[in-house]
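(Fold this chain)
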Amino acid sequence: MLDYMVLYQSETGNTKKLATSIFAALPGMAKDLRSIDELSSLPEASTYFIGFCVHRGTCSLEIGNLLSTTNNVGRKSNLSSFNHDGRF
């Protein structure tokens, strides 16, 4: 099991930049960074960081489904999300 799993969905590349920075700052080697578009299943981790862009006050259907999955994985884990509104 991983200590940290950093997942992101990025349309313009900005969320990927944030995800990469978070990943680089995490300690240890038991960590992974992936686009949710590449996932076939949710890897087990103690802590999840999930990044996405907010459109009209909500996230995409894929992110909503992923957040539902992390809530029902049957194990204790921590979840942090990060997002932006398209401006830097």
The beta strands are 2-8, 31-35, 45-53, 78-84. The helical segments are 14-25, 61-71.
